[in-house]
Amino acid sequence: MINPFKKSYTSKELNTFRFLSRIQLFERLDYKEMSHFLPYFYLREYKMDEVVFFRNDPANALYLVKSGKVSINIDIEDEFELLNIIKSGESFGESSLLAVSNRIYTTIVHSERAEMYVLPKVNIHEIFGAHPNIKTKMLESLSISYNNLLVNLFKGYKSSIGLFNLSQVFNN
After folding, report:
1. What angle do CA 122, 123, 125 make, to 5 degrees?
2. pTM, full prediction
């Protein structure tokens, strides 16, 4: 039996939900939960070598790459070291999910152009306040992501013992 009161979505909304479902932070959410974010996304186009944000900038937005590539870089003295390339269907700037945080890396567009959905931090936290179940699911996904990064850090450390002291990571 069809429920006449069930919300139906436009094809554009359904395409957005399919896109969001590919992104780790949103993959645990159902379409109704994802729909709370729709009014707050805005699509922005960037050009090659454009900086999206610098290390130590306030974490004011989450970025979802619709097309193109973005490099994640750490600055060492006056140079940037490439850490990762973020592609279509991936996100970056997850520190915006935290109440207070600054960026820990610099992001630079790595393709001729890139289109990104930008989701302001203020709207993320507005949704989190009204829908604690969404907050729980997204922070769980963030925890899994950070755990995977830590596993990779330990693997890298084990294969290059002596280049740095891992205790520096845990002792501020």
Report:
1. 70
2. 0.87
